[in-house]
Amino acid sequence: MIHKSSLVKRSERQTAAALKALGEPRRVEILRLLRDGPRAVGEIAAEVDVSQQAVSQHLAVLDEAGLVEARKVGTRSVYAIRPDGFAPVEEFVRSFWTPRLGALKDDIEKGR
Q1: How many CB atoms lie within 10 A of CB 50?
Q2: What is the pTM of this model?
Q3: Neighbours of 86 (CB within 10 A)
Q4: Is there a contact between 44 and 79 (Cβ–Cβ < 8 Å)?
């Protein structure tokens, strides 16, 4: 049986890992490239100003954070964005905005 507290802690770890991964500008640049579709490591390295080894290391961090996924195509690893991997980040950001939007709605309705 999985306890709620362990699910919350796992979610917090996922959020922290994703935010940490997104804190590196080169990784954000890689994600922007992948937004246009899956790419092999060599293709990504050709677009960003780092070595193929450095791109692989950045992709490993993004993969560990659940933001990308890899599949083998022949001898190449092709990476793509994992949209559901961004859910913890979205939930985290929403936790700041939802109360503020609710307060704004209340203020607007009071002004009617």
Answers
A1: 15
A2: 0.79
A3: 17
A4: yes
Residue pair 35/67 in contact (Cβ under 8 Å)? The answer is: no
SS3 51: coil
Residue 82, Cβ density class (10 Å: 0-12 exposed, 13-18 middle, ≥19 buried): middle
52 CB-near residues (< 8 Å, 6+ apart): 41, 42, 45
Helices of type H across 23-86: 25-35, 41-47, 52-64
- 13-68 pLDDT, tens digit per residue, is 999 999 999 999 999 999 999 999 999 999 999 999 899 999 999 999 999 999 99
Q: Which tokens go with 112?
A: 């009617």
